Every structure is written in C-alpha cells, then in structure tokens.
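Please review the protein record below. Let me know how this chain folds according to its tokens.
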Amino acid sequence: MGQASVAVANSIMRQDTWGSSSWRVIEGGHGKAHTPSKRQQTLALCATLALAISLVFVWLVSDGVQARRRQDALSQADVAIVTVLPGDSLWQIAQEHPVPGLTTDELVHVIREDNRLASAELQAGMQLEVPVCL
C-alpha cells in the first residue's frame, strides 16, 4: 500500500473515531480534512432550492399542457351510452372506444369521473356515458 493510501486510510479512520457529524473532504491523500465554508454550504443550499423550484415549475407547466390536450381531445368527441356486459371492465370499454389524443388510462379516468364511479368495479346492465369519436 502506497504512502498516500495509508495517509487517506488513517485520515478516514481518525474521522470515524472523532464521531463528528459534519462532512469532511479528504484532500490529496495527505490526511488533511476540510469542512465546507458557510459560503459553500449556502451556495449548495441555493443551488438545491433553485433546482427544486425549477422541477416544480416544469411539472406545473407540463400538467397544464396535458390538461389542455385532454380538453381539446374531449371537445372533439361525442358521448354515447354504453351498456356494460358481463365481464366488461373500464379498461376494455376505453380500449373499444378510443378517443384520439387520449391514452386508455386517461379515458378510463374520464369515464369514471363523468359517471361518478367510486371504483372501477362494474355491474352488468349498468349504463355509462362514454366519450366516442364517430
């Protein structure tokens, strides 16, 4: 084991025995420990906050774009009354009545919401309002 490796190992072992909860950076294998300055800690915190705010902004904008896309797709659709047959599921009904611009999952959500269904469980004979494109 080289001299630098021994110095790093000794520094790490000393750090562990100190029981310190602060971050320490070992510089160059010479056993010197460095605690980030208040300025460095503040910059790291600001960068983290800026990243978090940016991610929330992107999420909000993309959610608004998706809502607008769903609204546009539904505005092009008519509504049909579909009678549930034995063994039917919301997923199956949504797949059988696709609406361009909506995924099957989105269409299942729309059908549940429009028909005020508490769950995805269907009973044969139920009548559902389903968006359809003719």
About this structure: The radius of gyration is 30 Å. Helices lie at 3-18, 38-75, 90-96, 104-114. Residues 4-10, 13-17 have pLDDT under 50 and may be disordered. Residues 77-132 form a domain with the Membrane-bound Lytic Murein Transglycosylase D; Chain A fold (CATH 3.10.350.10).
